[in-house]
Design brief:
The complex is a heterodimer of chains A (about 110) and B (about 110). Chain A is mainly beta. Chain A has no helices and eleven strands. Chain B starts with a strand and ends with a strand. In chain B, strands 2, 4, 5, 9, 10 and 11 form a six-stranded mixed beta sheet that branches. In chain B, strands 1-3-8-7-6 form a five-stranded antiparallel beta sheet, with no helix packed on it. Classes of the chains: A mainly beta (about 110), B mainly beta (about 110).
Amino acid sequence: DSGVTQTPKHLITATGQRVTLRCSPRSGDLSVYWYQQSLDQGLQFLIQYYNGEERAKGNILERFSAQQFPDLHSELNLSSLELGDSALYFCASSVGTGTNEKLFFGSGTQLSVL
Amino acid sequence: DQQVKQNSPSLSVQEGRISILNCDYTNSMFDYFLWYKKYPAEGPTFLISISSIKDKNEDGRFTVFLNKSAKHLSLHIVPSQPGDSAVYFCAARRVRQGAQKLVFGQGTRLTINP
């Protein structure tokens, strides 16, 4: 158990809909990362928050947004969903910086857009 | 442009033998490399890393080899055990950069046969 909690584990929805994925980092970790893993693809970095502030952005679509709350949990909002958004979405929290930064991943949310 | 590539989607090895997982990268600026292991319904977990000042790093049954001139790294597991059956991701970044710069390969599914 990594200590990172993601809910829900599975989500099935239709095109055009909006969903929210939730992540609770490990106790004490200030940094939260979101990744997308599409079929046969590596993990693609979407966005990072640190202590409530956006720290870095990766390949995140404009239809997607995220936030980190004062209690450090984070939510990833996906809107106007398309079939291609079907993927496994991981959240990770981290400890340390630079070379010593280590990621701890949640078990992911499997999103299916029908 | 896939900067980190794992060209073998799957690998099957007999229990007790050596498993060799390969990874190639194209960005010569990468100087820190990691391997993650992922079981079904779980998030990736850190396995072993190597910086470019070394050409080998060993941790128990796991050894990572780095060939900078070929931009190639490999993970050796000796001896392979049934519990090693998982998806293995190779990842790379620059040593001083944080995890938001981590680039992942597509993963290799390793199956250890009894």
